[in-house]
Specification:
This protein has 2 helices and 4 strands, in the order βαββαβ. With about 90 residues, the chain is α+β, with helices and mostly antiparallel strands. A 4-stranded antiparallel sheet has the order 2-3-1-4, covered by helices on one side.
Amino acid sequence: MLVVSYDISNDKLRTKFSKMLIKSGAIRLQYSVYEINNTKRVLDNIKIKIEAIYSSKFEGNDSIFIFETDLQKAIKYGNAIHRDQPLLFFT
């Protein structure tokens, strides 16, 4: 699991970055914080895209933090705990 947090000052670049994360299966936790649960290949592709496309366009105060953790070791409270539980549908 990855947690990606960013602070990008350029509106257009920030929007493009956010859309890239969502297309990669990210779930928005807060305005600029996303959780990504996926295969190692998808996670590696996200890192490659950041290095190849976005990092060269950063301005002085821009940053991206990527935190890797095991989903089983992550501690969640509030609404976040419900995303990992299976859904029950009635028809």
